[in-house]
Write a structure and sequence with these properties.
The chain has 62 residues and is mainly beta. The protein has one helix at 48-51, and strands at 2-6, 9-13, 15-18, 22-26, 32-37, 43-46. The strands form 2 sheets. The protein has a 3-stranded antiparallel sheet with strand order 2-1-6. A 3-stranded antiparallel sheet has the order 3-4-5, with no helix packed on it.
Length: 62
C-alpha cells in the first residue's frame, strides 16, 4: 500500500503508475482513484513508513 502526500492531505492506494505529467493512483481490484499532477505531489510513500514495517528503529517522517 502507498500514500500520496498532497498539500491538502493524503490519498491511500494499492498501486500507482507514473505518467509524463503525474501519477495515476489505483485501489482494490485496480479501480482508478485519482490522477495527481507532479506539481501537487509532495511525496509518494510506502505504507511501511507509517506502520514501522522495517522494525529496526522509529524515526519521524514528518
Amino acid at each position: 500500500m502507498y500514500r500520496a502526500i498532497l498539500p491538502e492531505g493524503q490519498i491511500e492506494c494499492e498501486r500507482y503508475d507514473r505518467t509524463e505529467n503525474g501519477v495515476e493512483l489505483y485501489g482494490d481490484e485496480d479501480a482508478f482513484i485519482a490522477f495527481v499532477p507532479y506539481d501537487n505531489l509532495h511525496a509518494l510513500a510506502d505504507e511501511a513508513l507509517y506502520t514501522g514495517g522495517s522494525g529496526e528503529d522509529e524515526r519521524s517522517i514528518m
